[in-house]
Specification:
The protein is of the alpha/beta class. The protein contains 9 helices and 8 strands. The strands form 2 sheets. It has a 5-stranded antiparallel sheet, with helices on both faces. The chain starts with a helix and ends in an 8-residue tail after the last helix.
């Protein structure tokens, strides 16, 4: 994206004059090209990193946009923007009832349960909850509430009708590196367009106390060791986050658990 590389390159020489750059992408639902450009262009990644993907949602009107039906079962832009977000600014909360606001927050959480929802009026958001938090990083999965990966009985009884949803999977054990890599290659080959965000915390057989993490936007995956290793008394819990279209948690869990290393008899 030359339209992005050129101005960022020009600003890099003035890096000490500003704290952050906000890229406003109205009308661009998919941030993947921007993410790819910043992470893979050495001239850009040397000076910049992505801090967070923030979506501004109009509390009064977003429901009609989420309900918009696209031809051929395509996902509308509002759903995509919520799915990609690390932070959701829920704006104009003063124009709706508490009941409608709470109902909307529940729906947004169904679509993306890992995004932080920040309530605002007139788009006045506390910057300390948006900037400088490094929300878009591989280690962010380590800070997720453990309850995000489990379902209570009420959730199990409710049939999720959302086209886009978020799924959390966790289980103990050590993964077989080759089997897991093959699973992810096949998944991304077949479903990359449907997977908006993916994250993972992994324990591999034969890798000692090294804790691995990954983060992806569509087929673009960053993978590497976490900042801190597994502690000696820490339970090896593998955790996975998938946000996308037509996800089957049961099938994903089954396929991932088949990647566990098994001792030969």
């Amino acid at each position: 994206r030359g339209d992005l590389i050129r101005p960022l390159g020009q600003l890099s020489s003035q890096r000490r004059k500003f704290d952050a750059i906000l890229l406003e992408t109205t009308g661009l639902a998919d941030p993947a090209p921007i993410v790819y450009t910043i992470q893979t262009n050495p001239k850009i990644s040397e000076h910049y990193r992505i801090d967070s993907i923030v979506t501004l949602a109009d509390c009064k009107h977003i429901t009609q946009h989420l309900d918009e039906v696209k031809p051929d079962g395509a996902v509308n832009e509002a759903l995509q923007q919520v799915a990609f977000a690390d932070k959701i600014l829920l704006n104009k909360i003063d124009l709706v009832s508490k009941e409608d606001k709470d109902k909307l927050k529940t729906r947004l959480t169904t679509i993306n349960k890992f995004a932080t929802i920040i309530e605002t009026e007139k788009s006045r958001a506390p910057l300390d909850r948006i900037l400088g938090l490094n929300s878009f990083n591989m280690d962010s999965i380590l800070q997720y509430d453990p309850n995000f990966f489990t379902e209570d009985e009420s959730e199990k009884k409710v049939h999720n009708l959302e086209l886009v949803q978020s799924v959390g999977v966790q289980f103990t054990g050590n993964l077989h590196a080759q089997w897991f890599n093959m699973f992810m290659m096949d998944l991304l080959k077949e479903r990359a367009a449907d997977l908006y965000r993916t994250k993972g915390l992994l324990s591999f057989h034969g890798q000692g106390d090294t804790k691995f993490v990954f983060q992806g936007v569509h087929e673009q995956i960053n993978f590497g060791p976490a900042k801190e290793p597994w502690a000696a008394d820490e339970t090896r819990i593998n955790k996975f986050v998938f946000i996308g279209k037509n996800l089957d948690k049961k099938e994903l869990t089954k396929s991932l658990m088949e990647c566990l290393y098994k001792e030969e008899a």
